[in-house]
Amino acid sequence: MNRRRLGFMTVVSLLVLATHATLAGQAAQAPLPNVVILATGGTIAGTGTTSTTTVGYAVATVGVQSLIDAVPELKRIAMVRGEQVFQIASENMTCDHWLKLGRRVNELLAQDEVDGIVITHGTDTLEETAYFLNLAVTSAKPVVLVGAMRPSTALSADGPMNLYDAVSLAGSREAVGRGVLVCMNDQINGARDVTKTNTSDLGTFRSRELGPLGSMRAGRPAFYRTSTRRHTTQSEFDIREIRELPRVGIVYGYADYGSAVIEALTAAGVKGIVHAGVGNGSVSLDARPALVAARVKGIVVVRSSRVGSGAVARNGEVNDDAFDFVVADDLTPQKARILLALALTKTVDTREIQRMFNQY
Ligand code: DGL
To answer: Is the confidence at residue 20, as pLDDT, over 80?
Structure first.
């Protein structure tokens, strides 16, 4: 190679090295995102008497600062601070808890210095809180729910890595505008479609036939899909004015279930009934008169299915037009209840409510 060419190659190599050094320097200096962790309790904050205790442990005993201190690696990926909003097992979550949590999330996300929020939560009703927030949060900034299937004291506890991934996801640009997310066991699921599918498995959270939106790889999000349904900034629901959510009950269908539960809910004065029917949302001939009577009394009836995936067809198993029922699309009964409760804060018009089930 002649001297001129060698000289040119040397200059190019030096330029490449200088560019790499500059980029590396810039990356190292990029400010870390500000992530707030709102702790509510659950197994992720649980403690067992031995390292192999994975059932029968104390739930909701570890405070938010201890959860943060247990994962010093968080300091590498975000500026983190914590708030203990509740300290409960999530089977004890109530609509009032949801309203308080939703207001605090919206207050924090309205602050320029907050980039994202992680909510630590028991897994039993995590999907319900996530869906409520999916409809109530008014910001596009990431909100990520995270829990654990093993208590913090267990061998190979899943909480610390789940928390690390959740903080990374909540501080990422990739998660902006995707709605409320659930991050556990390396998977990223959307709040609308995710459900707890196994009582004890670490990978319990799945979006059944629709699948996860993406996954966490070495602490970084990789997205492959996004929800097509309305959420967060596209939501018409404003919880600032809601003092109490309308009461909505769920009736679970099974062979020979009869009408006693429907009649009890009607007598209790609920404003809505979600009927979790067998198959494609079927209503038995025995139960039908009570459900129609509830509608005649002004209770809004939504037909969903106990099956767990697939949409309920309007006017399929039941003539919804004739009975003025609403169908839940493919929302599980527990999520249909949340959407119906919020819908009832705005209207009792069943055509409007059916539109909401078709859009959210
Ligand atoms: N009691 C359950 C709850 O708080 C514990 C299960 C869990 O958090 O994984 O949801």
So the answer is: no
pTM for the whole thing?
A: 0.92
Of 55-59, 139-143, 193-197, 317-321, give the lowest mean pLDDT range. 55-59
Are 116 and 144 a contacting pair, CB within 8 Å?
yes
CA distances from 285 to 20, 76, 180 (A): 73, 61, 39
Domain 247-359 has CATH 3.40.50.1220: no
CA atoms within 13 A on the CB side of 72: 0
Give the integer Cα–Cα distance in Å for 200 and 124. Answer: 11
Q: Which of 145, 149, 195, 179 is nearest to 165 (CA)?
A: 145
Domain positions in the chain: 34-234, 247-359
**Residue 91: CB within 6 Å of ligand 1?**
yes
Do the two domains 34-234 and 247-359 of this chain adopt the same fold? yes
Task: Specify the ligand 1 atom closest to the Cα of 44.
Answer: 8
Helix (H) or strand (E) holding 214: strand 214-217
184 touches ligand 1 (CB under 6 Å): no
What pLDDT, in 10s, does the model give residues 68-126? Answer: 999 999 999 999 999 999 999 999 999 999 999 999 999 999 999 999 999 999 999 99
Geometric angle at alpha carbon 335, from 128 and 214, rounded to 5°: 70
- Between the CA of 46 and the centroid of ligand 1 the distance, in Å, is 9
Task: State the pLDDT at residue 29.
Answer: 73
Fold (CATH) for 34-234? Rossmann fold (3.40.50)
Nearest one of 144, 124, 181 to 37, comparing CA atoms: 144
Q: What is the pLDDT of residues 288-319, one digit of tens each?
A: 999 999 999 999 999 999 999 999 999 999 99
